[in-house]
Amino acid sequence: MRMGTVVGRVTLSVRNKRFVGERLLLTLPWTKDTFDGKETFAPSIVVYDELGANIGQHIAISEGREAACPFPKPTPVDAYCAALVDDHFYKK
Amino acid sequence: MRIATICGYATSTIKHSSFEGWRLLLAEPESPDVPTQIVIDNLGAAIGQKVIISSDGSEARKIVGNELSPARWTVMGIIDPERSLVV
């Protein structure tokens, strides 16, 4: 899971039929430099959220095949908000 | 599987139910192509230790004991620095 900062929300007007009540967040994933305190991020990604993350919050993003695992039915998701990170400790 | 250094931890109150009770560590892989990952640890790795992390999601789901878990990266072993040539 990568760490990410939520910077926006995405609302769909037309959606894949497997998406029901989805909440999509625009998120900037962290790079090594972000952990070091710089304002540089990896390219933004859209993350499926079920936990209710807010703008500015730090989240843990699960990616790849595992992002679709929490759904009982097959769902086309490749980035999933797995945790809202309250706090983190980083030592270089 | 990749060699990584444990460089911190994350705490979370609201999370996927499968992460309840698990340590979430920050692991920085040696190779630059993989960014710093939040990993699940059931072996007790400490900050500063070198570990092997694996991206096998099916093993991660077995470790947390939930087939619907979004967990992917887990600590597979802690490297013994005295007996390894790689460290």
Descriptive notes:
The complex is a heterodimer of chains A (92) and B (87). With 92 residues, chain A is mostly beta strands. Chain A has a single domain, classed as OB fold (Dihydrolipoamide Acetyltransferase, E2P), CATH 2.40.50. Helix content of chain A is 4%, strand content 40%. Chain A has a 5-stranded antiparallel beta sheet with strand order 3-2-1-4-5, with no helix packed on it. Chain B has 87 residues and is mainly β. Chain B has a single domain (2-78), classed as EutN/Ccml (OB fold (Dihydrolipoamide Acetyltransferase, E2P), Beta Barrel). Chain B contains 1 helix and 5 strands. Chain B has one helix at 57-64; strands at residues 2-15, 23-29, 37-41, 50-54, 74-78. The longest helix of chain B has 8 residues, at 57-64. The relative contact order of chain B is 0.28. The A-B interface holds A 1-3, 29-32, 35, 42, 51-52, 60, 62-67, 69-72, 80, 82-92 and B 7-16, 19, 24, 26, 28, 32, 35-39, 47-48, 55, 57, 60-61, 67-73.
Task: Please tag this protein with its features.
heterodimer, A: mainly beta, OB fold (Dihydrolipoamide Acetyltransferase, E2P), 5-stranded antiparallel beta sheet, 1 helix, B: mainly beta, 41% strand
